[in-house]
Structures are given as C-alpha cells and as structure tokens.
Amino acid sequence: MFLLVLYCFVIGNVIATQPWYHTREVRNVSTNSGNNVTLKCEKECSTTMDCPTGLSCFQATNDSEGCCLRALKPNETGCVMDDQCKRACESTHCDQSQSPPRCLCDIGSHFLFNKCWKKCPDFAHSEPSVDSTGFSQCVLKVDSKTALNYMRRFRRQMRSNFC
Length: 163
Ligand SMILES: *[C@@H]1O[C@H](CO)[C@@H](O)[C@H](O)[C@H]1NC(C)=O
Ligand SMILES: *[C@@H]1O[C@H](CO)[C@@H](O)[C@H](O)[C@H]1NC(C)=O
Ligand SMILES: *[C@@H]1O[C@H](CO)[C@@H](O)[C@H](O)[C@H]1NC(C)=O
Ligand SMILES: *[C@@H]1O[C@H](CO)[C@@H](O)[C@H](O)[C@H]1NC(C)=O
Known about the structure:
signal
C-alpha cells in the first residue's frame, strides 16, 4: 500500500498533466525486488518513446506492455523495482527496506559522487568506509573540487570503474 501511495506521489503529477488521449486503462505491474507487491501502472508503454519526458519504459515484452517509471541513479529514492536502478547503473538495486525505497550500490561496490565504484579511485582511500547498515562509500583523500576536476579530466580512462 505504501508503495502505491509513493508511486502516485512520484509520477502522479506527470500523469495529471497528460492530455486526455494518453489516458489508458491502468494495469498492475509486478515489482521484482524480492517481494511480489503489485502496483497500478499509470502509463503503459512498449518503448520509452511512449513515456512522458523523464520517464522510461520498464518490463515491456513483445507481448505485454510495460510501465513508464523513472530511471534512478545511485542514492536516489522512489524506486519500486530493481530495474529502475539498474537502468541508470547496472551494479545497483532497489532497497525496499528503506522508506522511501532507495537505489543502493550492490555489495562490493562503493558509493562516491552519485556513482557506484568497483574500486575506490586514486583520489580516495582504497579502503571504503562501511556504516552499520552496510552502506559502503569511498572516502576522498583530496578535497572534492580537486577530485571532481581529476574525474572530469580522466573520465574516459576511469569510466570502466564506476556506473
Ligand atoms: C490489481 O491489484 C489489485 C490489488 O491487489 C487487485 O484487486 C486487482 O484485481 C488487480 N487488477 C488486475 C487487472 O490484475
Ligand atoms: C506472493 O508470493 C507468495 C509466495 O510465492 C504467494 O503465495 C502469494 O500468492 C503471492 N501473492 C500475490 C499477490 O501474488
Ligand atoms: C521479440 O521480437 C523480436 C523482434 O521481432 C524478436 O527478435 C524476439 O525474438 C522476440 N522475443 C520473444 C521473446 O518473442
Ligand atoms: C543520499 O541521499 C540523501 C538524501 O536522500 C542524502 O541525505 C545523503 O547524504 C546521500 N548520501 C550520500 C552518501 O551522499
């Protein structure tokens, strides 16, 4: 029930501004984050082109419609299924034990600058810091401005280390 409310909150506004001809019958979508909660899909789709700006099409198959939802970066909240997190960053999942649910880096990857790193970069300590909830993040060795400049300069070389 909570997810349903959250979902309405997250994309309700977008839907409300859709013209009448986009209105379709709502359908339940199963989430795939361990529990088999279903939620009403406000906007069905076969590809992302069918979705309002800012939303992407999830769980569409050849013979059934998917649902328009937001793709979410690491640490963003409001996911209802893992795919929303994975669309933006493969090594993430939707942690539904949090309220609101949040996209977290998978075990073995570490959070820094809204990304998940396979290995902490040179401008951070090689050992990540892990809190009591298991949230793992890289700790900078330099100030964040220096680190961001470095990332900008070496982005191409570093790209395989994070998503
Ligand atoms: C959607 O889920 C609700 C609540 O679980 C259920 O009552 C309803 O019959 C479902 N609708 C469809 C089309 O599966
Ligand atoms: C959820 O999964 C359980 C166990 O697999 C099953 O018994 C139950 O009917 C499922 N509930 C729904 C709403 O699909
Ligand atoms: C879906 O359609 C594509 C293109 O028509 C086809 O290549 C693919 O095999 C289909 N997949 C399934 C599961 O039917
Ligand atoms: C994650 O996002 C929350 C806001 O939802 C913010 O308070 C927190 O600092 C972020 N975590 C990190 C490690 O940036």
